[in-house]
Design a protein that fits this description.
Elements: E1 2-6, H1 11-27, E2 30-36, H2 52-74, E3 80-85, H3 90-101, E4 105-109, H4 123-131, E5 136-139, E6 149-156, H5 163-175, E7 178-188, E8 191-193
Parallel strand pairs: 1-2, 1-4, 2-3, 4-5, 6-7
Antiparallel strand pairs: 7-8
Amino acid sequence: MKILVPTDFSSHSGSAAEFAVELARKANASIHLLNNATYDAPPTAGVLVNMTEKVAQQAREDLSAYAKQLREQVGSDIDISWEVTTYPKHSTAIHKVSDSSGSSLIVMGSKGKSGLEGVFMGHVAYQSLTGADCPVIVIPPDCKFREEGNTLFAVDVNNIPSDESISSLGKVLDLINHSLDLLFVNVNGDEEEI
């Protein structure tokens, strides 16, 4: 099993990496770190300068150092690899690398460097959820791994996930000794029924 961990070196992605390490220990899995290096010139810039390669080079240095630090923390128990991409959209990078690396799970922070307080989930996390071909676990800030417990899965009764999706989630929960609690929510207009 390989766990893809996208990182932008923010505290949010750091929490996700810590969670992924604990999950990898339980699942005897490897971790593949990903940073998508992009440079967006301000719209008022008179001259567009392609800084992508400079940004990517810095990202390679930073991600290499981060992977080394993570390896020192976890020891030789977990194989850690890393990759820097330069796709225009972060969610595209996550989906493509998930496929090409053979990842069975994506673990990522709910927000990145630009996360605004009070926003439930960042734009990249949301887009990654909607287009992924494998399960995605989105870790809120400062979330700690709990080896045993219950996992609450809220389901819209108008859009119930497939048996395959529930089965995939069940396999992940088995690894960490969690039971699955389903919460069925029916939303019609302003009315909610649980």
